[in-house]
Specification:
CATH class of the largest domain: Alpha Beta
Distance between the termini: 15 Å
Structural class: alpha+beta
InterPro entries: NUDIX_hydrolase-like_dom_sf, NUDIX_hydrolase_dom, UDP-X_N
CATH topology of the largest domain: Nucleoside Triphosphate Pyrophosphohydrolase
Shape: elongated
Organism: Bacillus cereus
Family: Belongs to the Nudix hydrolase family.
Pfam family, one: Nudix_N
CATH architecture of the largest domain: Alpha-Beta Complex
Protein name: ADP-ribose pyrophosphatase
Number of helices: 5
Radius of gyration: 19 Å
Length: 205
């Protein structure tokens, strides 16, 4: 599913970022900066994105570059799965978002569910860790690990947020129009498989 050139661009960017972080020699720093600019030019050209936009995306990385972490909360109630409808693309996703500094993965899951739906959750368990590159139909400029954490509602009430325009539970046979960048149909079906068999082996790419 992966478009190879985008993998190569991200690897070049990662090498350049590490070189700029650890190099002391001014000539090496200049070469790594040129390598970084080359990766920006390639990404800009092939994605038809303004050079400055790509530069800002890559410039947001500091230090040694590692994959970003996206946390998704898997919340079942009466054999239906909790989804939020995102305002950004008007499609449905499991509650979640980027992992925040200073929070554990389960704390991120709880925070995202509360902020996006109004529900309080607990009783966490790891269900799956996906490498986004292996499951997305279209390439991404960033390398992302997606962590799916099962949890249960223990309080709160349904409440919309500034990011969501709807909240609902769906059965396996009524999966809504998904925000594919956040979760794929394949991943959602795997979550329903965990609902049916809580002892199912965890998925780790």
């Amino acid at each position: 599913m992966t478009v190879k050139w985008i993998d190569w661009v991200k690897q070049i960017q990662s090498i350049a970022q590490a070189g700029l972080t650890y190099s002391k020699d001014v000539y090496d720093i200049e070469r790594f900066q040129q390598l970084r600019d080359l990766s920006i030019s390639m990404m800009s050209h092939y994605t038809k994105t303004d050079w400055e936009v790509v530069e800002n995306l890559f410039a947001s990385e500091t230090g040694y570059q590692t994959p970003k972490v996206d946390i998704r909360a898997v919340v079942f109630q009466n054999e239906k799965l909790l989804f939020v409808k995102e305002k950004s693309d008007r499609k449905w996703a499991l509650p979640g978002g980027w992992a925040d500094i200073g929070y554990t993965p389960t704390e991120v899951a709880a925070k995202e569910v509360l902020e996006e739906t109004g529900y309080k959750v607990d009783h966490f368990r790891l269900l799956a860790i996906f490498d986004k590159e292996k499951h997305q139909p279209s390439p991404s400029a960033t390398h992302v690990y997606k962590v799916f954490i099962g949890c249960e509602i223990v309080g709160g009430e349904k409440k919309l947020s500034i990011e969501t325009e709807d909240i609902d539970f769906f059965s396996e046979h009524e999966i809504p129009d998904l925000s594919i960048a956040r979760n794929t149909e394949e991943q959602i079906k795997e979550m329903f498989a965990y609902m049916k068999d809580p002892q199912k082996e965890k998925i780790i790419d």
